[in-house]
Every structure is written in structure tokens, then in C-alpha cells.
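Field reference: "sequence" (input) and "structure" (output). Example, Thioesterase family protein:
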Amino acid sequence: MDTDTLIQTETLIKVPFHDVDSMGVAWHGHYAKYLEVARCEFLDEVGYNYDAMEQSGYMWPIIDMQIKYVKPLRFDQVVRVVTQLAEWEYRLKLKYVIYDQTTGERLCKAHTSQVAVDGKTGEMCFQSPQTLIERLGKH
């Protein structure tokens, strides 16, 4: 796969009331949930969602997640999460940027890393399985 044509998706999320504190600001722990929603949409787009992962014999746990908060997300705010494939040969690393949908202002940057784990043995794979490479190549 050519790194100049990396796969990217965009996900819209409206910050719900139950995610905010008394000041109307989204609790920092909910950002992980927003990244998960965007990651699931990304995986659906490449045809390798969590069901497909399991069917292919692999589990893909998150091994690293880093979030940089720039500005708070607020109740009822519509945000656009841009998810981009960053690495895929030895792990699945996705980068995220969260923007305010109305103003385009950047609110947050993050990344997650997942590794393939053999579903039968529980052993971590030191390179991504061919099934992931094939799915990414078809996109």
C-alpha cells in the first residue's frame, strides 16, 4: 500500500447531555468512546470490523492510546472526527483529529495502536496478518 494514499474516514458525533459535567463540558474519559466510534466506522470502511477480525482468527486489543486536549467538547456540539491510517505492517495505528463541525477549529488530537493476537493461542503477532494487509489493499 502506498503511504501517499492512506485511508481516511470522517465521523460526526453530537456530544450528548449524559457525557458532560455541570459546566456542560465533556468529561475527558468520554473521548476514548468517541475515538472508538470513529475507529469502528474506519474499520467498517476497510471491511475489517471487529466481527471480521474475530472471523479471521485474530483479536486486536488497544495497546496504546494518547490524547492531546486542545479545547473542551461541549454539550450539543457537533464534532467531526477525522481518522487516518498511520501504520499497518506491525500494528494498526490510527491517528485522529477532532474538529468543531461548524467552525472547523481543531479541538483534540489522538492516536491508538492495536496489535493482532492469535485467537487460538493468545500469542501476540509481531507483524500484521495477511488478512489485514489484503483488506487495506482493496480499499
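The mean pLDDT is 94.
Strands lie at 8-14, 58-59, 62-69, 78-87, 92-100, 106-114, 117-118.
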